[in-house]
Amino acid sequence: MLLGAIEAGGTKFVCATGAENGQVSDRISIPTTTPVETMTAVDDYFTTHPVDAIGIGSFGPIGVNPDDPKYGYITTTPKPGWGDFDFLGHLKSQFNIPLYWTTDVNEAAYGESMIGIAKDVPNSIYMTIGTGVGAGVISQNHIFNGRTHTELGHMRLNRLPGDDFKSNCPYHDICLEGLAAGPAVGKRTGKAGKDIPVDDPVWPIITDYIAQACVNLTVAFAPDKIILNGGVINQRQLFPMIREKFAAYLNGYEEVPPLDDYIVPAGLGNNSGIAGGLLLAQAALKNA
Amino acid sequence: MLLGAIEAGGTKFVCATGAENGQVSDRISIPTTTPVETMTAVDDYFTTHPVDAIGIGSFGPIGVNPDDPKYGYITTTPKPGWGDFDFLGHLKSQFNIPLYWTTDVNEAAYGESMIGIAKDVPNSIYMTIGTGVGAGVISQNHIFNGRTHTELGHMRLNRLPGDDFKSNCPYHDICLEGLAAGPAVGKRTGKAGKDIPVDDPVWPIITDYIAQACVNLTVAFAPDKIILNGGVINQRQLFPMIREKFAAYLNGYEEVPPLDDYIVPAGLGNNSGIAGGLLLAQAALKNA
Predict the structure, then answer these.
(1) What is the CATH number of the domain that holds B25?
(2) Considering only CA atoms, which of A76, A72, A87 is closest in space to residue A35?
(3) Which listed residue, of A152, A164, B54, B216, carries a Cα 20 to 30 Å from A98's Cα?
(4) A47: domain range?
(5) What is this model's ipTM?
(6) Do B219 and A155 touch (CB under 8 A)?
(7) Do B269 and B230 form a contact (C-beta atoms < 8 A)?
């Protein structure tokens, strides 16, 4: 059995083939240009690399509820050409195999939950803090969705006294993404996150917002683990700062796992998504 | 078949009997004093009113995870005598019938979800804003728990500029409960919520925090409905204020149901909990 995975991001699509254990046997990267151009390359890949099922995680917002007329679509993205694109419908028209459709962060969360750092616990959250902020929630080993998928990058937090940075979110004067995602870090400092030394005064601000977000994830979902990934926190030295601020904010109100095991980097690095896609392909095959 | 329900609150316990449709046939109220005294009255009630199963919703925090050694316990409550009380174990020792054990707010959420205002949708949240703030989340018609139950009263929000009220939460400088629960409203105004006119300047503050909480519930759980109950919002006039602020904060970022159907008062009034308990008793009986 050969499985396929797509991790569809706003900058690039990764397509891969691999096995039931999430191990990748082949992969390519395709620039995200227009749906016609990008999807033609996707179709070509899986035509020349035939698989038994494909797991797809897409940038969003997307329709994830099978009852929704926009199920399988990328819906309201500002990305030119991709708004109201019937992604799943396109793939169905090309490949008569089981397909699993979810968000990019749900896909990555599933990968970490099944074979990554959260493989031993039933409830975990994968949050990426990069160009944007998104999170996937795994509840009792399943992807959590409500009426639609979560939009946890847009949770409100307490704006730090003295932080007069204008939110970078076009919708919200205050939200995690607007205050602490990569572009916000860039505008605050004039530099990319990876070039900012760990003792830069921007980090106490950014890690504070991330810590507040971890408090809100904790009281909302009571996960066993919160996995943080993405460009902004590629610097591992930020984790102790986040854990310390988290502990101060939670202030012993409820018991949580030891923080070194609770707020953690991804176990699969940049492979969380593709590994999750392969495992979701397997799930689709089982349910077919 | 006769079903039983317990709604165990910090001030009083309500015990009731009723039918599979959630209709109550008999009920009593018992003051919450010591575990021995209160539980003796509970035992007496269900001895004289025999039932086939009991659904229990308790004040917390409680152990809700069957793998937890403290499953069935009220755990760290400051309420004298009730810390580490094995509530479920006590009932099991008295009654050899199926029992369903959850939090008071999960019980109420379940009642509203099954026969109340959320009966037509699979995903809803019941949040009570009274002496404390708590919420129960229903996901795909089931009670949502993680490692433990939610503690949504303690989510962090943005402290309003100029609001220098000292949080009433002993743990958190900023949280929904500390800034907007009944005791906070009381300290802010010197009056009980029900005696404060709707044009009092405290309401724009309280409804703002509640609206922020609704935003965070929306981006976290994507529910079909948010049900607000409890002493602080017994005044129905507050709902339009909450909806208006919610709309301003969400700012069109994602589509939500029409707000009059989305942020709503409880459909069962003060019976959400007991109705939920009866329906959970029925669920326990089915799974037995």
Answers:
(1) 3.30.420.40
(2) A87
(3) A152
(4) 3-104+270-287
(5) 0.97
(6) yes
(7) no
